Structure formats: structure tokens, C-alpha cells
Amino acid sequence: MRSLLRQQLPEVLQGVVPLAAVAIVLQVLFVRAPADVFLRFLGGSVLAVVGLVLLFAGVELGVLPMGRYVGAALPRARSLALAVGVVFAFGFATTVAEPDVLVLAGEVAAMPDSPFSAPVLVATMGLGVGVFTAIALLRVVRGVSMVLLLAAAYGLMIVLAFATSADFVPLAFDAGSVTTGVLTAPVVLALARGFTSVLGERDAVTDSFGFLGLASTGPILVVLLLGLVA
Questions:
Q1: At what angle are helices 80-96 and 118-142 packed, to 10 degrees?
Q2: CA distance 200 to 55
Q3: What b-and-e string marks burial along 34-59, b requiring 16 or more CB atoms within 10 Å of the CB?
Q4: Which letter, b or e, does each residue of 132-150 get, where b requires 16 or more Cβ atoms within 10 Å of its Cβ?
Q5: Which whole number is the average pLDDT over 164-175?
Q6: Non-local CB neighbours of 84 within 8 Å, separated by 6+ positions
Q7: I need a labelling partner for 90 at 20 to 30 A (CA). Which of 71, 145, 178, 209 fits?
Q8: Which of 135, 107, 132 is nearest to 121 (CA)?
Q9: What is the pLDDT of residues 8-52, one digit of tens each?
Q10: Is 205 exposed, middle or buried (0-12, 13-18, 19+ CB in 10 A)?
């Protein structure tokens, strides 16, 4: 455990220290924020480093191995409905717990005349990820080309972007980007690797990857469809 924490610390510092350094330089030269605000920023940066180290260690230690075991167990159950249901549940559950998703939903809900409350937007994005993760699993089982699926998804996305209300388009694409965060990405990828590892003579690269890319189109399409209805 200690070796894992020591391994994660340099990676976290590489991400947090440059951000903190830029903020400190701006504070000294231009911003001149009140001292209490600046001190809270420094304290928050330290807490962020500690939290990220623990989060990444937890993902590496428990989430990824368990995800691979769950994915590998699904084909042995010999029930496509069960596999689709489990993958949908994992996609939904990780999305509604994703920190980036919660931040975006909170910001949207705080806007005047917001079309969404935070819980509704979070559930909407979770639904999109869950459905399209399940579609990605069905693609592997049925042998459908990922190229065709992505082309269809992005083609529909472009059409809806022109057809729906302009207020929903930026939100839709932000909804897609925040669902590829520190919880959803490892869980979906681990499930994909575990599932395809027991399928026999299949191309590991072709079948294992693309789940996350397809899953992230789900929230975009769902929010665009809501905008079209609204």
C-alpha cells in the first residue's frame, strides 16, 4: 500500500503543482485576491493532492481488478440480458458518482432559469452512459464494426446539434466530456478488458477499446434530444 501511494504521489504532483504555481504567480502579479482566499486556495491544493493520491490508489488497488473480474464473469453466465443489465448498471452508477459530473450539474442548476435541476441532469447523463455502454457490449457480442457505430452516433449528434435549441448544444458536449472522469473511465475500461479477455479468438485491441468513446456519446445525444423536445 505504501509503495502504491509513493508511486501515485509524483503523478498527482505533476498535475497539481503547475496549476498552483500559475495561480501563485497571477496572485503576486495581477490578481491580488484577499489573503484569506489565497490561503484557502493553498490549503485546498494540499487537500486536493492528498485526496487524489488516495483516489488513484483506491482505483488501482480495488476498482480496476474488480472491474476486470466482473467483466470476465459475465460471458460465463451465458445470459446476454444479464450482461447488458450489469454493464448498464455499472455505467449509470459510476457516472452519477463521478465528481466532474456532479460539478457540472451543480453549476448548471445554479444558473438563473436553468432547464435542469442537479439530480435530473446527473440522472440524465448516467442514463446516457449506461445505455451506450450496454450498446458497446452488444457490439462486441454481435461483431458490429465500431467505426459504423461511432459514425452513426456522431452523425446523429451533428444533425441534432443543428436541430435542437442552441442553449442545449454547449451543455450537451460538456456533458459528454465530464463523463470520462476518474471513476467512469477505469470502471468501463476494466469491464471491457475483462469481458473480452474470455471471448476466445478475438482481437483484444479492437474489442477492448472504444467502450468509453461510445459511452461518452450517450449523454451528448440524450441532452440534445431533451433540447429538441423542449
A1: 150
A2: 33
A3: eeeebeeeeeebeeebeebbebbbeb
A4: bbbbbbebbeeeeebeebe
A5: 88
A6: 134, 137, 138
A7: 145
A8: 107
A9: 788 888 888 888 889 888 888 887 888 888 889 889 989 988 888
A10: exposed
